[in-house]
């Protein structure tokens, strides 16, 4: 090197730089075009391709406000501190009820941590459950529930290999539309958005592109989550609970149909088909899935004695150990209850009890609950509502005789039977009469006294629903 003159050394250095640029360009070239999650390939260097394949790229970093304090921390290499700073800001904005700033800050957080699944779940939950309850009007609450769902949907778009996020979307939709206090309105809004000007009386296609029932949309997300689980290892949830999503959504859909009322034979046949399909998936899909339990031992929920013997041999354990493993998980997910529940719902006796109760409520809400006195006599003829609630109580007695566990384990059956009695009592009170001391569900009514406050609340919710002036805008 010392024998080379200055010009030769410069040429040698330049040549070395060119040689080193080749691997740098090959490995480090950035993405040269916008990349979608489902692209089969990506243009760019080898590292860019790996980041795309494993979804590790932070390509949205530039979307953060370049003048913000968080961006200053990022540029100094303190990304973790920037995220903590943004989380603190988000909490402050929520406490101050500055919803626009909260949403903007949450968006900045996910630009910095797009592949951290807990961020998506936590902030989605926060918007759908915590922020939504800060509003008084039901349609405003629904807007923020949608924001939470859309947020976690975006999480699935950016994280195609994280099955739990797909399950979370189904869980949010299923619980908020079907279980929350506002469920009577939310399920209606899900197919007919209260923002009529924007959605023209239809569904918000961002969360319900097909315009179908919320439980059916949840079913699609749960099914997709299970498909992702088949491809990638699911973490973050007990597997036996994770895989039950699709059949539980099917069964919940059938239950919601029944509670909405089955006004004609066509509706009753459709509901029977929904219960049949839910039962089939519960028993023949979820029930025969091969789970791994303690010590990685295999088990199936829908197992016969022969199945238990065979699996004990495959696991190399005693039959007692296999039976204990199976029994623990069967009890944990209430496998027998949902099997028996679907069976009971397909029974014409149960359908008749539901129908009598539904018709009784309809008669009550249509003011067909007033006594009809017989001219010239002191006795009266029962109103339509009283007659139908009498009939419903008698039918519930027969259902509970046939399926005794349902009178103890099924909160849905318990509440509907108690509501039947409550409506029956109200009919008498509205007519200025005391209800008879003896009636078909007396023992059941007295044995569930602790549920009466909740039953009264449910009765009041029904009463609000049938008064048009009380219905929120868009309902």
Helices, strands, pairings?
Layout: H1 6-28, H2 46-53, H3 69-75, H4 79-95, H5 99-112, H6 117-131, H7 138-158, H8 163-178, H9 183-191, H10 196-199, H11 214-231, H12 239-242, H13 245-260, H14 265-286, E1 291-292, E2 298-299, H15 305-315, H16 319-332, H17 335-345, H18 348-365, E3 372-373, E4 380-381, H19 384-402, H20 406-409, H21 411-430, H22 442-447, H23 452-465
Antiparallel strand pairs: 1-2, 3-4
Helix pairs in contact: 3-4, 4-5, 5-6, 6-7, 6-8, 7-8, 8-11, 8-13, 11-13, 13-14, 14-17, 15-16, 18-19, 18-21, 19-21, 21-23
**How many helices?**
23
Q: Would you report the number of β strands?
A: 4
User: How far apart lie the N and C ends?
Assistant: 85 Å
Radius of gyration: 30 Å
What string gives the helices and strands in order?
HHHHHHHHHHHHHHEEHHHHEEHHHHH
Strand content: under 5%
Instruction: Strand order, main sheet: write it out.
Output: 1-2
> What is the residue-mean pLDDT, rounded to a whole number?
84
Structural class determined from secondary elements:
mainly alpha
Main sheet? 2 strands, antiparallel
Q: Categorize the overall geometry.
A: elongated
Provide a descriptive summary of the structure in words.
- By secondary structure, the protein is mostly helical.
- Among the domains are: 6-53, no CATH class; 238-346; 349-470.
- The protein is 65% helix and 2% strand.
- The chain has helices at residues 6-28, 46-53, 69-75, 79-95, 99-112, 117-131, 138-158, 163-178, 183-191, 196-199, 214-231, 239-242, 245-260, 265-286, 305-315, 319-332, 335-345, 348-365, 384-402, 406-409, 411-430, 442-447, 452-465; strands spanning 291-292, 298-299, 372-373, 380-381.
- Strands 1-2 form a two-stranded antiparallel ribbon.
- Strand 3 (372-373) and strand 4 form a beta hairpin.
- Helix 6 packs parallel to helix 8 (163-178) and helix 8 packs antiparallel against helix 11 (214-231).
- The chain is elongated and about 130 Å long.
């Amino acid at each position: 090197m010392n024998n080379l003159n200055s010009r030769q050394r410069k040429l040698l250095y330049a040549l070395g730089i060119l040689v080193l640029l080749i691997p740098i360009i090959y490995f480090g070239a950035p993405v040269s075009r916008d990349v979608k999650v489902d692209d089969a390939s990506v243009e760019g260097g080898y590292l860019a391709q790996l980041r795309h394949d494993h979804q590790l790229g932070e390509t949205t970093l530039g979307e953060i406000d370049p003048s913000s304090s968080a961006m200053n921390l990022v540029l100094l290499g303190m990304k973790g501190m920037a995220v903590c700073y943004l989380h603190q800001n988000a909490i402050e904005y929520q406490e101050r009820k500055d919803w626009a700033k909260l949403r903007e800050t949450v968006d900045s957080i996910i630009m910095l941590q797009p592949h951290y699944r807990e961020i998506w779940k936590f902030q989605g939950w926060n918007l759908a459950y915590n922020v939504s309850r800060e509003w008084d009007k039901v349609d405003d609450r629904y807007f923020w529930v949608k924001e939470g769902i859309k947020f976690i949907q975006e999480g699935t778009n950016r994280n195609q290999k994280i099955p739990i996020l797909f399950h979370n979307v189904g869980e949010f939709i299923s619980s908020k539309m079907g279980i929350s206090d506002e469920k009577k309105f939310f399920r209606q809004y899900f197919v007919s958005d209260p923002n009529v000007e924007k959605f023209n009386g239809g569904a918000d296609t961002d969360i319900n592109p097909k315009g179908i029932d919320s439980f059916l949309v949840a079913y699609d997300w749960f099914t997709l989550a299970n498909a992702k689980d088949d491809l990638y290892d699911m973490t973050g949830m007990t597997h036996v609970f994770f895989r039950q999503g699709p059949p539980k959504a099917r069964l919940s859909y059938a239950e919601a149909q029944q509670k909405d009322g089955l006004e004609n034979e066509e509706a009753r046949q459709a509901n029977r088909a929904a219960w049949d399909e839910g039962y089939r998936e519960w028993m023949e899909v979820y029930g025969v899935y091969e789970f791994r339990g303690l010590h990685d031992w295999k088990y199936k929920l829908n197992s016969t004695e022969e199945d238990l013997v065979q699996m004990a041999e495959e696991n190399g354990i005693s039959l007692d150990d296999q039976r204990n493993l199976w029994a623990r998980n069967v009890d944990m997910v209430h496998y027998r209850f949902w099997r028996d529940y679907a069976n009971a719902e397909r029974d014409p006796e149960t359908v008749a009890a539901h129908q009598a109760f539904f018709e009784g409520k309809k008669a009550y809400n249509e003011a067909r609950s007033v006594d009809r006195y017989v001219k010239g006599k002191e006795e009266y003829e029962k109103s339509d509502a009283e007659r139908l609630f009498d009939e419903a109580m008698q039918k519930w007695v027969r259902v509970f005789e046939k399926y005794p566990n349902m009178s103890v384990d099924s909160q849905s059956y318990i509440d509907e039977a108690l509501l039947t009695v409550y409506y029956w009592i109200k009919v008498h009170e509205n007519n200025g009469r005391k209800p008879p001391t003896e009636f078909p569900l007396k023992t059941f009514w007295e044995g569930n006294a602790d549920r009466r406050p909740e039953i009264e609340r449910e009765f009041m919710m029904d009463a609000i629903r049938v008064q048009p002036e009380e219905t929120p805008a868009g309902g």
